[in-house]
Amino acid sequence: MISCTKGPIADQLDVVQTVVTTPALIVAVVIRWVERFGGGLGKPVQPFFLLALGLDATAMGQISTIGTLCSLLPAPLYGWAQDRFGPYYTLMVASAGCGIGCLLFGFAPGFAVLAVATAFQGIGGGSLATMVNAHVALVTPPARRSLVLTGFITQCLTLHIAGQAAYVPWDLMLRTLGVSNRVLRFRLTLSVCTFFCFFGVLQLLRFGHHLGDTRKKPGYGTEATDTEAVELRTPSSEGQGKGASDEAELGSSDLSDDAATPKPSSGEPHWPSARQTVALGSCFPLVFLVACYEALLSLAWPLFIKTHFGWQEHQFGGIIFASSVAQAVATASFPLFDRTFGGTRNILFLALALAFGSLAAFTFQSATASSMAASTVLMIGSQAIIAALNPGLNALASTLAPQTVQAKLFSAMSIAAALGKIAAGMVGARLFQFSMGIDLPASGSQSVLYGGGTLPTLLLAPITAAAAAALYGTVHNIEPPSQDRLRHTVD
What is the pLDDT of residue 300? Predict the structure, then answer.
């Protein structure tokens, strides 16, 4: 039973129980958990490692764009392959590519090798999250999809926080072992992520047969509902005949509130109505803009605080640790706000807060205690909003699309997000570099809205507000069954 009185902690316990008792979920989820911890360990030092290699904001933007392009180009192939063959092979390729990229990145001597390493990370790690999220969405009934997706992402954020927290003792250990060179410590910290990525390969080799294949038999309904059983066929059960004992149905697992026999149909996808199609399309501009903010803030914020406040990697590590905690709390709380206020209204409020909160964060540019505190709080809040918007938009779009194209949908959304990150890397980085070069007057009052690094967020704010309003206008009159059930008690 899903009750609107549940809080974030009860939601998380519910999701954890679902994941650990469902073999088709736990295998994929553990891969993402481990990869998130390893990625968190290197996050505090990455921008300062790039600065130590001589890269400026424009070069960092180019590196980011390369990675994003390499995650964008194979996205349709990943989506087609996962819908066609199941998640085993897509997750294997993504995990291996991520591991190779991390190894090359940690020991890159300059821009060229960094570009190659980032390409591998884009092909691998850039698609790993998308394919795992698509698999989680596919094997989760629509009425529980927002809850399970946001709960899973919260778990990933929590492990990312744990990885960031591990950086301080890790760096202390390296110093104790005699690694006094700062750049060498950066290299070791970044390259150790390789082991966490290749864990996914070992996990799939050992337990991949539990992962399953969510393709349906011909004649079964292709639009999944809460009471519809979706067959899981594992690689080891292929060829064992129709009565293979490995076959299981999600309708009998803890993922579904009811178990029922699948309803026969023609086997053709049940496409949404025209209004739902328009609503689904209106999700993509906001996905693009949220990703643009995510990449822009990740790129610009370390340079902003280094230039204006004189902070280095240890201060930055403390900030991103606090930011990650805020992101985890925001993501965990999203289902509660979704049930209370409604998904589209919630997304509208969050998008407006992101647009104007991030803009305000860059206007506090003096190195006074009050200015640094205000800028930091606003930036942490903006990053927490991004963390909540991503699964919220994914869950909303997922309920508007046919069940048989879930992986393709998530690939399409990852393409929109990749384009947003490319825009941030190519255009946003240059605008930020230009804005940082503007000489502010002594009072700082005449050009503070476009100088000192503020210009990109100044341009994004009205566009984001318009996109959020358009999404709300097209979706608020449409009530997908799963969203309606999420806001009420479901038996």
Answer: 86
